[in-house]
Amino acid sequence: MDSSASTLILCPPLNLKTQSKDGVNLVFDSTCLLQKQQSLPTEFLWPHEDLPSGGQDEVKDPPIDLTGFFHGDEAATTFAAARIRTACLKHGFFQVINHGVDRNLIRAAHHHMDAIFNLPLAKKLSVKRKPGELAGYSGAHADRFSSRLPWKETYSFVYNHANNPTNRDVVSYFKSVLGNEFEVAGCVYQKYCEEMERLALVIFELLAISLGVDRGQYRKFFEDGSSIMRGNNYPPCKEAGLTLGTGPHSDPNSLTILHQDNVGGLEIFSDNKWQSIKPCPDAFVVNIGDTFMALCNGRYKSCVHRAVVNKLRVRRSLVFFVNPKEDKVVTPPLDLVLTTHQRLYPDFTWTDLRDFTQNHYRADTATLQNFVNWLSNT
User: Fold this and answer.
1) φ, ψ (nearest 5 deg) of residue 102
2) Residues noted as catalytic
3) How far is Cα 134 from Cα 157, in angstroms, rounded to an integer?
4) Residue 215: what are its φ and ψ, rounded to 5°?
5) Which pairing describes strands 273-276 and 57-58: parallel, antiparallel, or unpaired?
6) Segment 177-192, tens digit of pLDDT
7) pTM of the predicted model, to two decimals?
8) Is residue 294 within 8 Å of 368, Cβ to Cβ?
């Protein structure tokens, strides 16, 4: 495909076609859009109530220091867990510092994701995500939706945890999909994902402590998990006030660990208003997702968030979506059921919820409840 072509005639929602009724390829090419479009294509317009209304307040919660946990300091660990509990009861979001992930590794992961997004459009489209699959390139999710498109492109791949019997080598994946010249990138992401897995298991241990259940409850549940690594690229948009990089939603997965660059744009909904998350190069942003909300029987709420775009600067982020093994049954510890005397959500597997959001429903702020309703009718 000629990378200079730019067409935005888009398919119906969740109709996973690669061409419009006129036979025109569906392409998101932000460079051409910026240069050639007089106004923002209607497919990218979002409802007024979803858009930023001006300068947002910043979240004031200080980051949670993990130093004490790694040193075996029980008092510091208890304090960190208490801070996590407060944050998760309030909005399902917190940041962690002194997490043990090497700063040079984070920098390298950003660098290699930049290189992927800077590839020619034809190359990116040659590795685009196929319908129903989780790995590959996506431009504005234009192959899935026809309205309220996010002003972004993504590149995703699957990472199976160390104890997963189907563990796949990230290096081999990068070489086979992108070419041998991406072997170094594959090595970087193999290490990065291993570090994200390690950090996720630490956070799950602290979450268990904060909920008053067995300390190893969630760590064991996720040790053989299958997670998704994604890079997000939000190009500049001259009409940034009319669109969003990501619309309001909560993540369907269990836990999201994000590192954002210094541009800013991530916002959470807390205290009945949108609040921005100031970038901190030494911190990881952590969001509770819908699957974990079910795993804790609704004690903690999944974090509602969105991403705004910048008029002048590109914004990029690295996201690790933590999931259990696909066939594991999501059910809360008995202790969390006895205290409320009821189950808020039925048993399900991550595969059930993932397939619901891939094939039947566009993730938003009410995904889990709509999934439960769907389950009861199928």
Assistant:
1) -60, 130
2) 315
3) 7
4) -55, -35
5) parallel
6) 999 999 999 999 999 9
7) 0.91
8) yes
- pLDDT tens digits along 108-124: 999 999 999 999 999 99
CA dihedral 134→140→143→145, nearest 10 degrees, is 110
Torsion sign over Cα 96, 113, 194, 125: positive
Classify burial at 182, counting beta carbons within 10 Å of its beta carbon; exposed 0-12, middle 13-18, buried 19 or more. Answer: buried
Q: Which residues contact 133 (CB under 8 A, 6 or more apart)?
A: none
* Strand stretches in 215-325, DSSP E: 226-234, 246-249, 255-260, 266-270, 273-276, 284-288, 305-307, 315-322
Tokens of 97: 């510092």
CB distance 182 to 175 below 8 Å: yes
Give pLDDT tens digits for 339-369.
Answer: 878 999 999 999 999 999 988 899 999 999 9
Q: What is the pLDDT of residue 284?
A: 98
- All residues at 6 or more sequence positions from 250 whose CB lies less than 8 Å from its CB, including other chains: 92, 287, 289, 290, 302, 303, 304, 305, 363, 364, 365, 367, 368
Which residue reads 């594991």 in tokens? 328
Pick the range with the lowest mean pLDDT from 28-32, 212-216, 262-266, 302-306.
28-32
For 307, other C-beta atoms within 10 Å of its C-beta total: 22
